[in-house]
Amino acid sequence: MKLSTVAKVLAKNSPEQYREAVKLCQPMLSQPAIIPAIHERIKETYPELDRTDESILFAATVYTAYAPACLLASGVDRAPNGIRQTMCKVMGWNDAPVVNYYCDLSRAYIKGPKFKEKVANILLGFQQFSVKSNQIELF
């Protein structure tokens, strides 16, 4: 069964739940200009993080802002290439598969309330965002 078929059935049987799911999956931003500032905010807010933890938090925060559907489950469309290229440049990663690797790790971490709180703390530092940790939800 295709995902589009499931979406159509959900839209027909539970339109309110379908609208909520669509809203949850819509990115807050589309332009990658804020990504370097997100990284700086992580370094300022959590200077004690090692490189791996910093990378996981960075991926989770960027994907929450730019491609939240990617954090819901593996196999969901990846973030746009411009965002992944900017992430590679900011973090000094070699290529997009590294972004995919950290996105996969952040998908597991984002389920934890403490990690959600960290992501929310980073995003709340920007005027463009008004997300709280209890608003970062997964199906």
From TrEMBL:
It comes from the Bacteria. This is Uncharacterized protein.
